[in-house]
Write a structure and sequence with these properties.
315 residues; alpha/beta; Rossmann fold; 2 domains; five-stranded parallel β-sheet; 12 strands
Length: 315
Amino acid sequence: MKIAVLDAATLGDDLNLELFRQFGELCVWQQTPPEELPAHLRGAEVAILNKVRMTAQVLSGAPELRLICIAATGFDNVDLDWCRAHGVAVCNVVGYSTQCVAQVTLAMALSLMTHLPEYTESVRSGAYTGGGTANRLRPVYHEIAGKTWGIVGFGNIGRQVGQVARAMGCRVLVNKRTPVPGWKCVDLDTLCREADLLSIHTPLNESTRGLLDRRRIALLKPNALVINVARGAVVDEAALAEAVKQRRIGGIGVDVYTTEPLPAIHPYQEILGLPNVCLTPHMAWGGYETRVRLLEEMAENIRAFLAGGRRNRVD
């Protein structure tokens, strides 16, 4: 059996992919541009991928393919309808990045809330040393305790963020289709109006695309912080950048973008240098332990498939 790893570079260069060799011939490509997909998939029965798009056209050109293993929880880059119709199994990995994404979400919130980059820069630049005062308290920052933290999407990651927010003394509001016992659930408009911090943890689908749109962004408090570690297209990126530029919200933390990597021409490029903007390169999911866990889970998915099981199947 041939196993094709299509975009190993997205998994980091510090992992050992040899564990997949136990299942057959292993072919590893660091990247697979669309035009190279037919060649890289030729003869493969198992495809391991992270960001590569598997469209109906691509899939129809890989007749031997039996299993697609996605190195992520989201699976919007794979045409599931085609896979179901043609008997190609698709597995994702659930829950592997919960702690890591929640950690980065909290780090972004605390950095933005306490203005850490500005304070560290005052020491690095020598402004503190030469200031003649024992401390510096500008820009003014606020305690997170007592603030309202709104969470959009309440799966494994959203719930973990909610628990951390509660531990920090926040009032937590949740936006989810179905009520969650023990949590205050509200509609999205209410959440936007009341949240001091709003973090997004929902998958991307047709119902969530553009969920935080221009109208809802206009509902946010003037000092509200917005953190998106879900998918770029869940947010109207141009409207969010505009709100930051016009100082209609307090700031943003973003790890995901509609097009990745972040294009040279993009609304966020215009706000990169602002102190209330924290942009990261889609790294929130990728702590070392997290990625090791991911590989181990994918190996278990393959093992279960070969044994006739349906572990982590999304098709």
